[in-house]
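Example 3.
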Amino acid sequence: MYDPTVARLTYRALLGRRRAGILFLLPGLLLVIATVVRALHGVDDQVAADLLGGFALATMVPLIGVIAGTGAIGPEIDDGSIVYLLSKPVKRWTIITTKLIVAIAVTMAFSAVPTLIAGFILNGNGQQVAVAYMVAALVASIAYSALFLLLGTVSRHAVVIGLVYALVWEALFGSLIEGARTLSVQQWALSLAEKVTGDGMIRSDVALPTAVTLLVAVTVGATWFAGYKLRRLTLAGEE
Amino acid sequence: MSTLHIDHVSRWFGNVVAVNDITMSIGPGVTGLLGPNGAGKSTLINMMGGFLDPSTGTVTLDGTPVWRNESVYRSIGVVPEREAMYDFLTGREFVVANAELQGLGAKEAQRALATVEMEYAQDRKIATYSKGMRQRVKMASALVHEPAVLLLDEPFNGMDPRQRMQLMELLRRMGAEGRTVLFSSHILEEVEQLASHIEVIVAGRHAASGDFRRIRRLMTDRPHRYLVRSSDDRALAAALIADPSTAGIEVDAAEGGLRIQAVDFGRFTELLPRVAREHGIRLLTVSPSDESLESVFSYLVAA
């Protein structure tokens, strides 16, 4: 299920690439904004919830998920270096699950942790807002990583598709169109956050049982399909 | 000792047939897979390495299918043609990672690095390596588990003569140890120097198979075409056609010369100047008109 060598290669590839800059940039930006807002507004639970919901969970988490999820496998498939993993007596399922674990860990580290810190900066975790959004970010990290890892396995344009999904679907439609919200990782994660925080600070359109079911289904389904695709991955020659 | 069996294998991509009904066995020793660019060599090697499923037919290693069977990689080492590696690692880190994925460790990695003589640069990032150095580190990564079968796709591409000699020596040694070594190349001389056994692939088809002397003979015994201009083309033509080494002569008015088809290369090259001298004809141009490797290959396919 987990291969430490595959994990090491994956995280070094993830953090060693130029794209990794975004992994540091976005959380940095969140912390700067949180500090500025706190300085200008003082402590305000609603402002804290709005910022963490609107920027951290709606924008930062999916973007980090795109970078980590697609980056964990996409470039290796594109440039063909995945052949060094595939030509080993290592189960292809193990390759996928290991890469998923690394993608989840990286997404959590670069999204959930800064979200918690930003929450503390904004209102000192008043009404459990910081913890609630951290929980939402943790849960969303899992689903996004699985989804975008699958995307990296099936498409050469994984980053672009991932960005469109993250920005257009999750951030735009997810906030505006009601039907889209049911099919939004963000809303599922919010459903959990709703339970953590105090009354009415966080609202999700999806009921908790539905949210949990969908989260599990998407994560397991995407991972299974990614493993299925990798098992059938063919390396055509240059000719 | 291991043998790869390719049994009636075809592979097509959409409407394009890349490999067309090939059957061959690759046994211990060094085998060269020879063919022009685009002949289907990489497709075939990818199928031998289990990275591509045959559209029809089977590829087996000592009776076990290689497609979707990760356990064959305990006995197969692969040196891919593509350049991409984990450039952000040092050579040593890369080979150690490959060893670990084989269930081995740093000791085996170090031995493989020594085998390819890359210890001196093992702590440099792969990104800084020359093409030949990359090739050698790739070799080391394929050798860590001392595989019975070694598959190399165009291993000499981009190597300088010295690096080429070194790699050839290494592959020769591995073949002599009883390993099954298969490498592809589009350069006849390269294959000839190294492989005792040659498989020729042209346009996706298995064109010829055998030891290099037989292949060489096939290639030199094929009809050779020449364009010849002389002081008296028709007299020369009449004198040449009397000899069995000449199969056909055409007067090419546009070129202002003769198009001669010779069937016995050695005899014809001796005949032409002699006949010209005997008849007092001056030879102005003698040029082979189809010496490209591709035309040699297309002859082999037709044969």
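The radius of gyration of chain A is 18 Å. The mean pLDDT of chain A is 90.
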